[in-house]
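thought: user wants a sequence for this fold. calling inverse folding tool.
action: design(structure=
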């Protein structure tokens, strides 16, 4: 029998993403989020949800762009730090020792050391309640060659993305493959 846990923000897996933005003075900023996912195939889009009180919220509204940076397990401490302080108060790149790179496609920075980056142009803003959903069209995906497999696709075991467990506030790595999609279920 299943036990009711109530209406809450609880689903698995939840990605750990770092959103890159510029402020009014073009200072690079990053913020860790968990409320996000792919939301459209054509055009390719991603949705992220932020509270209005965040520094990044105003940056996205002002610049109409953001990046999604996927940290590997190696950078979980930096990703956690990015979600615990505000860019209003500190320069997160200087404090973390990581490198801000200017996107050549959108008006937002990305994190050089993170192995996977999506460069996004803001196309829709939806007020939901406490959060605002930003939908960004993915203009490009950049991946370090070290996380690519033989066929040029992302190798999840090399990428080592981090997921978030909201009910216990924990970070987890992704485990081994368990089957081939669109195939394992065929009889």
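)
observation: tool returned 187 residues.
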């Amino acid at each position: 029998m299943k036990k009711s846990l109530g209406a809450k923000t609880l689903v698995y897996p939840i990605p750990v993403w770092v959103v890159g933005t510029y402020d009014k003075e073009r200072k690079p900023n990053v913020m860790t989020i968990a409320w996000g996912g792919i939301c459209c195939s054509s055009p390719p889009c991603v949705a992220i949800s932020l509270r209005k009180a965040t520094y990044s919220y105003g940056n996205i509204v002002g610049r109409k762009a953001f990046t999604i940076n996927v940290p590997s397990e190696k950078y979980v401490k930096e990703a956690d730090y990015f979600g615990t302080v505000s860019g209003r108060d500190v320069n997160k790149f200087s404090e973390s020792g990581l490198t801000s790179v200017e996107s050549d496609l959108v008006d937002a920075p990305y994190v050089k050391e993170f192995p996977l980056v999506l460069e996004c142009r803001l196309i829709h803003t939806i007020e939901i309640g406490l959060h605002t959903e930003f939908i960004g069209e993915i203009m490009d995906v950049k991946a370090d060659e070290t996380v690519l497999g033989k066929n040029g696709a992302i190798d999840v075991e090399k990428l080592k993305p981090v997921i978030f467990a909201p009910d216990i506030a924990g970070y987890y790595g992704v485990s081994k493959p368990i089957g081939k999609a669109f195939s394992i279920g065929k009889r």
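thought: summarizing for user.
answer: Here is the designed sequence. The domain at 14-173 is CATH 2.30.110.10 (Pnp Oxidase; Chain A).
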